[in-house]
Structure formats: C-alpha cells, structure tokens
TrEMBL record:
The chain crosses the membrane at residues 6-36. It comes from Kistimonas scapharcae. Keywords: Membrane, Transmembrane, Transmembrane helix. It comes from the Bacteria. Pfam families: DUF2374. This is TIGR02808 family protein.
C-alpha cells in the first residue's frame, strides 16, 4: 500500500502544477471574454 500511495502522491504532485496553470489560464480567459463582451455591449 505504501508503494501505491507513493505512486499516487507522485502523480498528484506532478499533475497539480500544470492543472493549476491551465485552470488559471482558462479562468482568466473566461473572465476576460466576459468583461470584453459586457464592455462592448455597454459602449454600443
């Protein structure tokens, strides 16, 4: 069980950083598109 746990923690450790980076990038893109859409409709 300890070997399995070590493998699981290694996978979680290595996958956490890209997931956080991609998740933040996606959230920023969604917020940016939302703000651009709202500002564009208000201006016109």
């Amino acid at each position: 069980m300890s070997t399995l746990e070590a493998i699981i923690w290694n996978i979680l450790g290595y996958s956490a950083m890209p997931l956080i980076f991609l998740g933040g990038f996606a959230a920023t893109a969604v917020v940016a598109c939302f703000l651009i859409d709202k500002l564009g409709k208000k201006e016109h």
